[in-house]
Protein backbone atom coordinates (compact mmCIF):
# COMPACT_ATOMS: atom_id res chain seq x y z
CA UNK A 1 0.00 0.00 0.00
CA UNK A 2 1.20 3.51 -0.75
CA UNK A 3 1.09 4.66 2.89
CA UNK A 4 3.53 1.97 4.01
CA UNK A 5 1.01 -0.21 5.81
CA UNK A 6 0.15 -3.78 4.88
CA UNK A 7 -2.99 -5.83 5.30
CA UNK A 8 -3.31 -9.27 6.85
CA UNK A 9 -3.32 -10.99 3.46
CA UNK A 10 0.07 -9.47 2.66
CA UNK A 11 1.47 -10.53 6.04
CA UNK A 12 0.25 -14.08 5.42
CA UNK A 13 1.89 -14.06 1.98
CA UNK A 14 5.14 -12.76 3.45
CA UNK A 15 5.16 -15.52 6.07
CA UNK A 16 4.54 -18.06 3.31
CA UNK A 17 7.39 -16.62 1.26
CA UNK A 18 9.74 -16.97 4.23
CA UNK A 19 8.75 -20.61 4.67
CA UNK A 20 9.28 -21.38 1.00
CA UNK A 21 12.64 -19.61 0.68
CA UNK A 22 14.96 -22.58 0.53
CA UNK A 23 18.61 -23.13 -0.32
CA UNK A 24 18.34 -24.71 -3.77
CA UNK A 25 20.94 -27.21 -4.96
CA UNK A 26 19.15 -28.84 -7.88
CA UNK A 27 18.49 -26.54 -10.81
CA UNK A 28 16.97 -26.76 -14.24
CA UNK A 29 19.39 -25.63 -16.95
CA UNK A 30 16.65 -23.56 -18.57
CA UNK A 31 17.79 -19.93 -18.88
CA UNK A 32 16.02 -17.36 -16.77
CA UNK A 33 13.49 -15.17 -18.50
CA UNK A 34 15.48 -12.06 -19.49
CA UNK A 35 13.62 -9.63 -17.24
CA UNK A 36 14.03 -11.63 -14.05
CA UNK A 37 17.65 -11.14 -13.03
CA UNK A 38 17.51 -7.32 -13.43
CA UNK A 39 14.29 -7.25 -11.38
CA UNK A 40 15.76 -9.42 -8.64
CA UNK A 41 18.96 -7.40 -8.42
CA UNK A 42 16.99 -4.14 -8.37
CA UNK A 43 15.08 -5.47 -5.36
CA UNK A 44 18.38 -6.31 -3.63
CA UNK A 45 19.41 -2.67 -4.00
CA UNK A 46 16.61 -1.76 -1.57
CA UNK A 47 18.50 -3.48 1.25
CA UNK A 48 19.64 -1.53 4.31
CA UNK A 49 23.35 -0.92 4.89
CA UNK A 50 25.47 0.57 7.64
CA UNK A 51 25.81 4.33 7.11
CA UNK A 52 24.00 3.93 3.76
CA UNK A 53 27.32 2.64 2.44
CA UNK A 54 25.87 0.04 0.02
CA UNK A 55 29.08 -2.02 0.20
CA UNK A 56 27.81 -4.92 -1.92
CA UNK A 57 29.54 -5.54 -5.23
CA UNK A 58 27.89 -8.07 -7.53
CA UNK A 59 29.98 -10.00 -10.07
CA UNK A 60 28.00 -12.06 -12.57
CA UNK A 61 30.23 -14.97 -13.53
CA UNK A 62 29.69 -15.84 -17.18
CA UNK A 63 33.06 -16.84 -18.64
CA UNK A 64 33.95 -20.52 -18.84
CA UNK A 65 37.46 -20.10 -17.34
CA UNK A 66 36.10 -18.25 -14.30
CA UNK A 67 33.35 -20.80 -13.74
CA UNK A 68 35.81 -23.66 -14.05
CA UNK A 69 38.14 -22.02 -11.52
CA UNK A 70 35.29 -21.73 -9.02
CA UNK A 71 34.25 -25.32 -9.66
CA UNK A 72 37.84 -26.49 -9.13
CA UNK A 73 37.93 -24.64 -5.82
CA UNK A 74 34.68 -26.34 -4.80
CA UNK A 75 36.02 -29.79 -5.71
CA UNK A 76 39.16 -29.29 -3.60
CA UNK A 77 37.30 -27.83 -0.62
CA UNK A 78 34.59 -30.48 -0.81
CA UNK A 79 37.20 -33.25 -0.72
CA UNK A 80 38.78 -31.65 2.35
CA UNK A 81 35.37 -31.40 4.03
CA UNK A 82 34.58 -35.02 3.17
CA UNK A 83 37.77 -36.13 4.92
CA UNK A 84 36.44 -34.64 8.15
CA UNK A 85 33.61 -37.16 8.43
CA UNK A 86 33.53 -40.90 8.90
CA UNK A 87 31.03 -43.70 9.16
CA UNK A 88 27.39 -42.99 8.47
CA UNK A 89 27.95 -39.23 8.51
CA UNK A 90 30.56 -39.59 5.73
CA UNK A 91 28.19 -41.78 3.70
CA UNK A 92 25.42 -39.22 4.07
CA UNK A 93 27.74 -36.36 3.19
CA UNK A 94 28.83 -38.11 0.00
CA UNK A 95 25.18 -38.44 -1.06
CA UNK A 96 24.46 -34.73 -0.75
CA UNK A 97 24.38 -32.45 -3.77
CA UNK A 98 26.13 -29.47 -2.27
CA UNK A 99 26.30 -27.10 -5.24
CA UNK A 100 24.42 -26.25 -8.39
CA UNK A 101 27.54 -25.15 -10.21
CA UNK A 102 27.01 -27.54 -13.13
CA UNK A 103 23.39 -26.65 -13.80
CA UNK A 104 22.41 -23.18 -12.56
CA UNK A 105 22.23 -20.76 -15.51
CA UNK A 106 23.33 -17.78 -13.40
CA UNK A 107 26.28 -17.61 -11.02
CA UNK A 108 26.63 -14.44 -8.97
CA UNK A 109 29.42 -13.58 -6.54
CA UNK A 110 28.57 -11.09 -3.80
CA UNK A 111 31.58 -9.18 -2.54
CA UNK A 112 31.93 -6.60 0.21
CA UNK A 113 33.97 -3.48 -0.49
CA UNK A 114 35.57 -3.12 2.93
CA UNK A 115 36.81 0.41 2.29
CA UNK A 116 33.98 2.21 0.50
CA UNK A 117 33.91 5.98 0.18
CA UNK A 118 30.14 5.99 0.43
CA UNK A 119 28.78 6.28 3.95
CA UNK A 120 31.75 8.30 5.29
CA UNK A 121 32.47 5.60 7.88
CA UNK A 122 29.20 6.12 9.77
CA UNK A 123 28.47 3.19 12.10
CA UNK A 124 31.24 0.94 10.86
CA UNK A 125 34.18 2.45 12.73
CA UNK A 126 33.19 0.69 15.95
CA UNK A 127 31.99 -2.56 14.32
CA UNK A 128 33.69 -2.92 10.92
CA UNK A 129 31.94 -6.25 10.33
CA UNK A 130 28.69 -4.35 9.77
CA UNK A 131 29.90 -3.85 6.19
CA UNK A 132 29.82 -7.62 5.65
CA UNK A 133 26.52 -7.85 7.51
CA UNK A 134 25.10 -5.28 5.12
CA UNK A 135 26.04 -7.47 2.17
CA UNK A 136 24.35 -10.43 3.86
CA UNK A 137 21.11 -8.41 4.13
CA UNK A 138 21.37 -7.68 0.40
CA UNK A 139 21.86 -11.38 -0.33
CA UNK A 140 18.84 -12.22 1.83
CA UNK A 141 16.73 -9.60 0.06
CA UNK A 142 17.83 -10.94 -3.33
CA UNK A 143 16.94 -14.46 -2.20
CA UNK A 144 13.40 -13.48 -1.21
CA UNK A 145 12.88 -11.41 -4.35
CA UNK A 146 13.99 -14.40 -6.43
CA UNK A 147 11.72 -16.87 -4.62
CA UNK A 148 8.73 -14.56 -5.00
CA UNK A 149 9.28 -14.81 -8.78
CA UNK A 150 9.65 -18.59 -8.81
CA UNK A 151 13.45 -18.48 -9.00
CA UNK A 152 15.72 -20.53 -6.74
CA UNK A 153 18.99 -19.47 -5.12
CA UNK A 154 21.72 -21.65 -3.66
CA UNK A 155 24.60 -20.40 -1.53
CA UNK A 156 27.87 -22.21 -2.30
CA UNK A 157 29.99 -21.99 0.84
CA UNK A 158 32.40 -24.87 0.18
CA UNK A 159 34.90 -22.77 -1.76
CA UNK A 160 38.08 -20.84 -0.99
CA UNK A 161 37.26 -17.09 -0.95
CA UNK A 162 40.77 -16.10 -1.99
CA UNK A 163 40.72 -18.48 -4.95
CA UNK A 164 37.38 -17.09 -6.09
CA UNK A 165 38.55 -13.48 -5.72
CA UNK A 166 41.65 -14.28 -7.77
CA UNK A 167 39.65 -16.05 -10.46
CA UNK A 168 37.33 -13.06 -10.80
CA UNK A 169 40.17 -10.49 -10.64
CA UNK A 170 38.44 -8.16 -8.20
CA UNK A 171 40.04 -5.27 -6.25
CA UNK A 172 42.04 -6.18 -3.17
CA UNK A 173 39.61 -4.31 -0.90
CA UNK A 174 36.76 -6.65 -1.90
CA UNK A 175 36.07 -9.71 0.23
CA UNK A 176 33.84 -12.56 -0.88
CA UNK A 177 30.67 -12.89 1.18
CA UNK A 178 28.56 -15.25 -0.93
CA UNK A 179 28.74 -17.23 -4.14
CA UNK A 180 25.24 -17.80 -5.44
CA UNK A 181 23.74 -20.17 -7.98
CA UNK A 182 20.49 -18.84 -9.44
CA UNK A 183 17.92 -20.54 -11.65
CA UNK A 184 14.64 -22.38 -11.78
CA UNK A 185 14.57 -25.15 -9.15
CA UNK A 186 13.97 -28.73 -10.18
CA UNK A 187 11.80 -29.16 -7.09
CA UNK A 188 9.92 -26.67 -4.94
CA UNK A 189 9.84 -27.59 -1.26
CA UNK A 190 9.14 -25.76 1.98
CA UNK A 191 11.43 -28.05 3.99
CA UNK A 192 15.23 -27.60 3.77
CA UNK A 193 16.92 -30.34 1.76
CA UNK A 194 19.40 -31.07 4.55
CA UNK A 195 16.45 -31.69 6.84
CA UNK A 196 14.64 -33.86 4.29
CA UNK A 197 17.65 -36.16 3.81
CA UNK A 198 18.37 -36.47 7.54
CA UNK A 199 21.52 -34.36 7.87
CA UNK A 200 20.16 -32.06 10.57
CA UNK A 201 16.63 -31.41 11.77
CA UNK A 202 15.46 -28.05 12.98
CA UNK A 203 15.41 -27.39 16.70
CA UNK A 204 12.87 -25.43 18.71
CA UNK A 205 13.08 -21.64 18.52
CA UNK A 206 13.07 -21.46 22.32
CA UNK A 207 16.59 -22.91 22.34
CA UNK A 208 17.88 -19.76 20.63
CA UNK A 209 15.92 -17.12 22.56
CA UNK A 210 17.53 -15.72 25.71
CA UNK A 211 16.53 -12.99 28.13
CA UNK A 212 18.93 -11.14 30.40
Structure description:
There is one protein chain. By secondary structure, the chain is of the alpha+beta class. The protein has seven helices and four strands.
Structural class: alpha+beta
State mean pLDDT (0 to 100 scale). Answer: 92
Distance between the termini: 38 Å
> Which sequence of strands runs across the widest sheet?
1-2-4-3
Please estimate the helix content.
Answer: 25-40%
- Indicate the multimeric state: single chain
Keywords:
212 residues, alpha+beta, 4-stranded antiparallel beta sheet, 4 strands
Ordered list of secondary-structure elements with their pairings:
Elements (H helix, E strand, L loop, with lengths): L7 H13 L15 H9 L11 E5 L3 H19 L4 H9 L10 E8 L16 H19 L3 E4 L5 H8 L5 E10 L9 H4 L16
Antiparallel strand pairs: 1-2, 2-4, 3-4
Can I get a quick summary?
By secondary structure, this protein is of the alpha+beta class.
Amino acid sequence: MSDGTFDDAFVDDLDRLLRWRRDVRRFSRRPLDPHLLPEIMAAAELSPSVGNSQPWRWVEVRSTPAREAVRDSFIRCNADAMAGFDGERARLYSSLKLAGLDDAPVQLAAFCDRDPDQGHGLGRRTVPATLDYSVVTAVSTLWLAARARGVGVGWVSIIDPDEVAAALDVPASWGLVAYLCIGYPELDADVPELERVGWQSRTAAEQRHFVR
